[in-house]
C-alpha cells in the first residue's frame, strides 16, 4: 500500500514542479481537478476487473517524480523514425517537448495549447473533460500532468497531406515521466490522415513512463485515417488512451501496432453519437521475453444505423504476457447496428500467455453482431509442409508468424506505412520464434 502512496505522492510532486513553468495557466484549474480525482481513485489490484491481468509492480517499485529537461536534443532523427514516402507534415517531440529543429509544418493547421485563442481554449477544455476516466485512472494522471498539447484542425478545404507526429524518448540517467496530449478535430466533410509514432532510445539502466492521451472528434461526413505505432524499447512503460467521437455519416479507419514493454497499456474508446457512422479498428501486438502488452477496446453504439468492424491479432513469445479485452456496447436505441469483433492470437512458446476477453453487451433487438477469439500455437501441419520443401525450421517459423499478421498490413490504405513496418516486425519475429 505504501508503494502505491509513494507513486501518488511522486505524481503530486511532479505536478507542482511543472506548474511553476507552465505556459497554459488557463488549464491550471483543470489540472488541479484531475490530479485530485487521481489521488482519490483506488489503486488497481488483481481484483480490479479492468486491470485484472496487469502487473503494475514496475510502477510502484520505482520513482517517477522526475520531469524532463526541455533542452534535451538528438543529433538527427533515427532512420527508423522516417516514413520517407509519406510526404507528411512532421511534428517531433523529444521527451514530450516540441523539437522545431526536426519538425516540418507546411500546410496543415496545427495549434499548441499554449498558443490557443479563447475559442480554442474552450473547445480543448470541454473535450478533455469528456475523456472517459471511469475505468482508467491514468487518464486522470495525464490531465494532472499535461502542460501543453497539440490541436489539429481540419476542414474540407484542408490539404490532403498527412500529419506525422513522432514521440521520441531520449536515453536518460534517471527514471522520467512524460505526459502528452493531442486533440484532432475534423469539421464537416473534412478528410485527414494522422500518424502517431512512439520511439525510444535503448537505455536499460532507466525506465521511462509515458502517459499519452489522444482525442479525435470526427464531424458530419468527415473521414479520419489514423495510425498509432508503438515501437518503444522494452524497458519503457506506456499508459495511453484514445477516444474517437463519431458523428453523422462520419468514418474512422484506425490501425494500431504495439510492441511489448515493461508495461504497455492502451485503452481505445469509440463513440457512435449520430446515425450513419462507421468505424474500422484493427491492430497487431507483439510481445517477447518478459514483456507485457494490453489492449482494451470499447465500442459504444449509442444510436441507430451505425457499423463497426474490429480485428486484432497478437503474437506472444518467450515468457511474455498479453491481454486483449474487446467490448461492444449497444444501447437500447441503437437499432440496425452491425458490429463485429475478431481477436486471434498465436503463442510462439510454451511459456507465453494471452488473456483474451471479447464482450457483447446488447440492449437492442434489431442488430447483427458477432464476436470471437482464438488462441493457438503454430500449425504443425503447415510447419511440416514447409520443412518438407527444404525450408530451414527457423525460416519456416518466421514465415508462418509473419503470415499471421500480413493480411492486416496488406489492407492498409497507405502502403508506405506497411512497407515501413514489415522489416521492423520481421526482425522482431526472427528474435521471437
From TrEMBL:
Matches recorded under SUPFAM superfamilies: Stabilizer of iron transporter SufD
Q: Name one Pfam family in it.
A: SufBD_N
- The SUF system FeS cluster assembly SufBD core domain is annotated at 173-404
**Span of domain SUF system FeS cluster assembly SufBD N-terminal:** 13-155
User: Which InterPro entries does the record associate with it?
Assistant: Fe-S_cluster_assembly_SufBD, SUF_FeS_clus_asmbl_SufBD_core, SUF_FeS_clus_asmbl_SufBD_sf, SUF_FeS_clus_asmbl_SufD, SufBD_N
Q: Which GO terms describe its biological process?
A: iron-sulfur cluster assembly
Describe the family membership recorded for this protein in Swiss-Prot or TrEMBL. Belongs to the iron-sulfur cluster assembly SufBD family.
| Protein name (Swiss-Prot/TrEMBL) | Iron-regulated ABC transporter permease protein SufD
From what organism does this protein derive? Pleionea mediterranea
Amino acid at each position: 500500500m505504501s508503494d502505491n502512496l509513494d507513486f501518488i505522492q511522486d505524481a503530486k510532486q511532479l505536478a507542482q514542479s511543472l506548474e511553476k513553468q507552465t505556459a497554459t495557466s488557463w488549464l491550471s484549474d483543470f489540472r488541479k481537478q484531475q490530479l485530485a480525482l487521481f489521488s482519490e481513485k483506488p489503486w488497481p489490484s488483481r481484483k480490479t476487473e479492468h486491470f485484472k491481468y496487469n502487473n503494475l509492480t514496475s510502477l510502484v517499485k520505482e520513482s517517477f517524480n522526475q520531469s524532463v529537461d526541455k533542452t534535451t536534443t538528438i543529433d538527427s532523427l533515427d532512420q527508423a523514425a522516417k516514413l520517407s514516402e509519406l510526404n507528411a507534415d512532421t511534428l517531433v517531440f523529444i521527451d514530450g517537448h516540441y523539437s522545431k529543429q526536426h519538425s516540418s509544418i507546411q500546410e496543415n493547421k496545427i495549434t499548441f495549447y499554449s498558443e490557443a485563442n479563447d475559442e480554442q481554449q474552450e473547445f480543448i477544455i470541454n473535450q478533455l473533460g469528456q475523456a472517459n476516466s471511469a475505468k482508467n485512472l491514468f487518464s486522470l494522471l495525464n490531465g494532472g500532468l499535461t502542460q501543453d498539447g497539440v490541436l489539429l484542425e481540419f476542414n474540407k478545404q484542408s490539404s490532403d497531406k498527412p500529419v506525422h507526429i513522432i514521440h521520441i524518448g531520449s536515453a536518460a540517467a534517471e527514471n522520467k515521466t512524460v505526459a502528452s496530449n493531442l486533440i484532432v478535430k475534423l469539421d464537416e466533410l473534412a478528410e485527414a490522415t494522422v500518424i502517431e509514432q512512439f520511439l525510444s532510445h535503448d537505455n536499460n539502466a532507466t525506465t521511462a513512463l509515458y502517459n499519452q492521451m489522444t482525442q479525435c472528434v470526427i464531424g458530419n461526413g468527415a473521414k479520419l485515417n489514423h495510425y498509432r505505432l508503438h515501437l518503444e524499447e522494452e524497458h519503457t512503460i506506456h499508459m495511453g488512451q484514445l477516444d474517437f467521437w463519431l458523428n453523422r455519416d462520419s468514418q474512422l479507419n484506425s490501425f494500431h501496432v504495439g510492441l511489448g514493454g515493461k508495461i504497455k497499456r492502451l485503452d481505445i474508446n469509440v463513440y457512435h453519437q449520430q446515425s450513419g457512422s462507421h468505424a474500422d479498428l484493427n491492430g497487431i501486438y507483439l510481445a517477447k521475453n518478459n514483456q507485457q502488452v494490453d489492449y482494451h477496446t470499447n465500442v459504444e453504439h449509442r444510436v441507430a444505423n451505425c457499423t463497426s468492424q474490429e480485428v486484432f491479432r497478437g503474437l506472444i513469445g518467450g515468457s511474455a504476457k498479453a491481454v486483449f479485452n474487446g467490448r461492444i456496447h449497444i444501447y437500447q436505441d441503437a437499432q440496425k447496428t452491425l458490429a463485429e469483433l475478431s481477436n486471434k492470437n498465436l503463442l510462439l512458446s510454451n511459456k507465453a500467455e494471452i488473456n483474451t476477453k471479447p464482450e457483447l453487451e446488447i440492449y437492442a433487438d434489431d442488430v447483427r453482431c458477432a464476436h470471437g477469439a482464438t488462441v493457438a500455437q503454430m500449425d504443425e501441419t503447415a510447419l511440416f509442409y514447409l520443412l518438407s520443401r527444404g525450408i530451414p525450421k527457423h525460416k519456416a517459423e518466421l514465415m508462418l508468424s509473419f503470415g499471421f499478421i500480413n493480411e492486416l498490413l496488406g489492407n492498409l490504405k497507405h502502403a508506405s506505412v506497411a512497407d515501413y513496418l514489415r522489416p521492423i516486425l520481421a526482425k522482431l519475429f526472427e528474435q521471437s520464434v
